[in-house]
Amino acid sequence: MLLISCPNCGSRDETEFHYGGQAHVAYPENPNDLTDREWAEYLFYRDNTKGTFAERWLHSTGCRQWFNMLRDTVTYDIQAVYPMGTPRPAAAGAAAVAAPDAGTASTAADSTTTGTAAPSTSATSISPTSTTAPEGATK
């Protein structure tokens, strides 16, 4: 579970936030002049960076304000939280900009953020399905 530091409300649980995609994607100056391919690239093509990545987040159950976050997509380490419209901080100097109580993902084996655990099916018993329908059922 991430502990995200909202610039307006302070540290809160990640369940209060919604991910808003890649940060710093500029809206086209003349959207009516774009071809269908250029418009599709603007709408759907985003970076898929392994490592430090700038993201937009919405504090949906708190102040309802958007902000940017610089986060490592491998370790879930939050390096910086900064307001919308502010330039992206440098990755090397981002640790100095990050909030002191910015959290990281849990490394526990049962953590849903690490994706390492799955429900156990070893204790369940599945009986073979019947090939005939129950009396009164229609096919």
Q: Would you mind describing this structure in some detail?
A:
This protein has helices at 36-44, 94-97; strands at residues 3-6, 10-13, 18-22, 52-58, 66-72, 78-83. The chain has 139 residues and is mostly beta strands. The radius of gyration is 22 Å and the shape is globular.
What are the salient characteristics of this protein?
two-stranded antiparallel ribbon; single chain; globular; 2 helices; 24% strand; mainly beta
Compact summary:
The protein is mainly β and 139 residues long. The protein contains two helices and six strands; from the N terminus they run βββαβββα.
Shape: globular
> Main beta sheet: strand number and arrangement?
4 strands, antiparallel
The spatial strand order of the largest sheet comes to: 3-4-5-6
Report the C-alpha radius of gyration, rounded.
22 Å
Strand content: 15-25%
* Mean pLDDT across every amino acid position: 77
SSE inventory with pairings:
Blueprint: E1 3-6, E2 10-13, E3 18-22, H1 36-44, E4 52-58, E5 66-72, E6 78-83, H2 94-97
Antiparallel strand pairs: 1-2, 3-4, 4-5, 5-6
